[in-house]
Amino acid sequence: MAIIIVGAGAIGQVYGHHLARGGAEVGVLVRPRRRAAAAAGYTLTRIVPLLGRRTERFVPRFVVTSAPELAGVGGIEQLWFCVPTNDLDDALVRDLAQAVPAATIVVLAPGHFVRDRIHRLVGPARAVFGAIGMISYVSPLEGSSDPRETATEPGLAYLLSPTKLSSASESRALDAVTALRLGGCPCDLVNDAIGDVALGTASLMPSVVALEIAGWSFRRYREEESSQLAARATRESITIAASVVGRSEPTYAQLVSPFLLRSAVRLVPLVSPLDMESFLRVHFAKVGEQTRLLVSTSIDDGQRLGLPTDAQRELLAKLDETRSSA
User: Fold this and answer.
1) pLDDT tens by residue, 22-58
2) Which value, to the nearest 10 degrees, does the dihedral of the CA atoms of residues 10, 266, 53, 197 take?
3) Which residues lie closer than 8 Å to 275 by C-beta, 6 or more apart?
4) CA nearest to 107, candidates 87, 86, 126, 130
5) Is the CB of residue 28 less than 8 Å from the CB of residue 101?
6) For residue 95, what are the CA distances in angstroms to 12, 84, 100?
7) Cβ count near 171 (within 10 Å)
8) Strands 52-58, 2-6: pairing kind
């Protein structure tokens, strides 16, 4: 099986590595300026809780930079789009899908609206959607003094948890699930990965925004009003997400409170096998445009559905103020 990873960043490298470990011939599609670095391969460090970290190498079988190049490869069965939602360009998706018209299109970008876009571009039968199951970041982790991070080799460090995939075509989704599992990456076939992503995003994004407002400081997040606003915004966003994807509001939504969020932020550094505070700062600062897009979309959905959005609006206004003063 030949597979192309579109966007060989922190997520794409890890999926590409595990797909290759499972026996697939994995290539990457990158920007022209990144061709040489991609051809030389990537260094990855897997974080295994309680067992430490181990370094691995992923060298793509081939590197391409455009749809015409892709058309000349032959035998490609899957295209994995591992880019942020705001970088998921319609023209790129269409051109690549046309270059390999029989290939499955695996999309891992968050946002419930992504499903309609991809279905419109390539049709439901070819599309597989996923909920990313990992933490992945450039190592050593920028700005971290944690000995675990400073001792990690340059490249990427990653921590796996199960990826979830779903599709209107169960056979295409199952092929993708199997390809990951063969490479040692945990993966589950689910009924609605987009719905899972939507609820997960709704649960996480308000706290990410509040943490950025608090200067990416867990201490300030706990001590200031950030957690109070985040709790209100989280309850709003979960209600909206559940309505949009046609699910009952999950029970845990009623448990979200400032106390719970502050407790979680206090507990995470004690149990995490990585410097989570630094990771959140580095990762979400990099995908800040995506964060704002997802929160704005939730507000727009809430307006359309006649659901409360006041806390999310206040949170977004504070975020814009924070960014403008930076």
Assistant:
1) 999 999 999 999 999 999 999 999 999 999 999 999 9
2) -40
3) 141, 144, 146, 148, 149, 269
4) 130
5) no
6) 19, 18, 9
7) 8
8) unpaired
- CB–CB of 65/8 below 8 Å? no
Contact 316, 208 (CB under 8 A): no
Looking at residue 129, its pLDDT comes to: 98
Which segments of the chain have a pLDDT < 50? Answer: none
Please calculate the CA angle 223-211-138 and round it to the nearest 5 degrees: 135
pTM of the model: 0.94
Which residue in the block uniquely carries the two structure tokens 């308000």? 206
pLDDT per position as a tens digit, 122-160: 999 999 999 998 999 999 999 999 999 999 999 999 999
Closest CA to 164 of 192, 126, 206, 203: 192
Q: Which pLDDT score is estimated for 309?
A: 98
In angstroms, the CA 20 to CA 182 distance is 9
Question: 54: helix, coil or strand?
Answer: strand
